[in-house]
Write a structure and sequence with these properties.
Elements: H1 3-12, H2 20-34, E1 38-45, E2 52-66, E3 73-86, E4 90-101, E5 104-118, E6 123-138, E7 141-156, E8 164-168, E9 171-172
Antiparallel strand pairs: 1-2, 1-8, 2-3, 3-4, 4-5, 5-6, 6-7, 7-8, 7-9
Length: about 170
């Protein structure tokens, strides 16, 4: 075995500190830094005068979860798409959030029905409720469940074009 391979093997086996879950946690942390709370609007024609309105808003961001039962924390990312079937009245959001913790992983998929309020041309707020499906593996035990979810969604648009913005969405399921 070459010296560089022995050195790499020795480095990876130091007191068992580096293992598969540490690598997943590190990659999740990098994703949190790279994609923290980004919302992107895809444009389409609204009417014949040429005013544009987004077809969908794509949300990419970090996700954190706290289990109140056992106090465990987990971190991951969130991917969602939001459409507006009824302007100023109803928005639908379909999203997926995988999170990873010590000896556990969880996949949440949710469908939220949201009522939007526009505070200004750059700030929006939405209250949403919907259904969620969870697939969790904790210490090798797999559970699947369905439930309800409520969420508060704060959107901040730095420009009036609504092509790139920030969001904060605390939720309870």
């Amino acid at each position: 075995m070459p010296a560089s391979a022995r050195l790499l093997k020795r480095f990876c086996n130091i007191a068992g500190m580096i293992h598969f879950y540490s690598v997943k946690f590190f990659l999740t942390f990098i994703l949190l830094l790279c994609f923290t709370d980004v919302a992107i609007g895809q444009k389409a024609l609204k009417d014949s005068i040429g005013e544009k309105e987004p077809i969908a808003v794509v949300e990419l961001g970090g996700a954190a979860s706290w289990n109140r039962g056992n106090g465990k924390l987990s971190f991951g990312y969130s991917i969602a798409a939001e459409v507006t079937p009824i302007e100023n009245w109803l928005e639908l959001e379909l999203g997926v959030s995988p999170t990873y913790g010590a000896h556990s992983r969880e996949w949440d998929a949710d469908l939220l029905f949201k009522k939007p309020w526009t505070f200004s041309s750059k700030v929006e707020f939405m209250f949403g409720a919907g259904v969620t499906r969870t697939h969790a593996v904790d210490h090798g035990v797999t559970t699947n469940s369905m439930g309800g979810e409520i969420a508060l969604d704060f959107m901040f648009w730095p420009s009036l074009k609504h092509q790139f913005g920030w969001y904060l969405e605390p939720a309870y399921e």
